[in-house]
Amino acid sequence: MPFQQRIARLGSRNSVVQTTLKLTLPDVADVYQGAELWDLSLVDPDNRRPVDYRARIGLLEQVSALLKCDRRTAMLDMLKGWQDGRAKLAVIAILLGYRRDHSKLFAQGSYEPLIATGSKVDQICAFARSYQQDVLVVAVARFSVRSEADRDWAGTEIPWPQAVGRQTHWQDLFGGRVVERRGEGVGVEAVLGDMPVAVLVPITADTAKYDLDAKPVSVRGRGGNSAVGGRRAERARTWSPARA
Questions:
Q1: pLDDT tens by residue, 68-125
Q2: Domain edges within the chain
Q3: What is the four-CA torsion angle of 92, 97, 101, 107, rounded to 10 degrees?
Q4: Among the CATH numbers 2.60.120.10, 1.10.1200.120, 2.60.260.20, 2.60.40.1180, which is that of 109-218?
């Protein structure tokens, strides 16, 4: 049914948003065993149930290969063909890999909400995490029905966090595009584009190992241009799809 198909598709984008928030907000990244793809349980999944790891390994290999070719196109294609769950798996794999390499940022880093300005402030959630010189910026689109009806983000901006220091060039872990900092804020269109989520990290020598397909974007902004415990939580924090 067209209505059911539309709701399911929009729900998949919400799931990608929720997964991104879960893996970047303060706290332990708690992923249920077997929930690396879509999970339609009406209650919390049972961690004792059998998991088809072979299928997940196969999908992860596909995801990894596609991301290396053209990251942004791959992510958009996976969101379009959302039914197989690869979009969610890609988000988990990318963010868990970054968490592994920047563990102190997520374990001890501060949290700074970034309050958007403009006509669609209620449709964007953004924040920054920072620890010493390590920092990232997360932006996600809210209300997928509204976003689909009106994709124009013109006039809506996100302020740069106070912890950015002298960092001027940032790259999205999901799309690979580069955003140049010019001024106090950055347009949401430049950060998200057609994606519902973005995680911007400063471009350094370390960034290259994530095989990001850089697509420079120059943007003028304003002024110029509690941890959960338990065995399951510990497993979620250290789990990598490649080990499944």
A1: 988 999 999 999 999 999 999 999 999 999 999 999 999 999 999 999 999 999 999 9
A2: 2-102+231-243, 109-218
A3: 20
A4: 2.60.40.1180
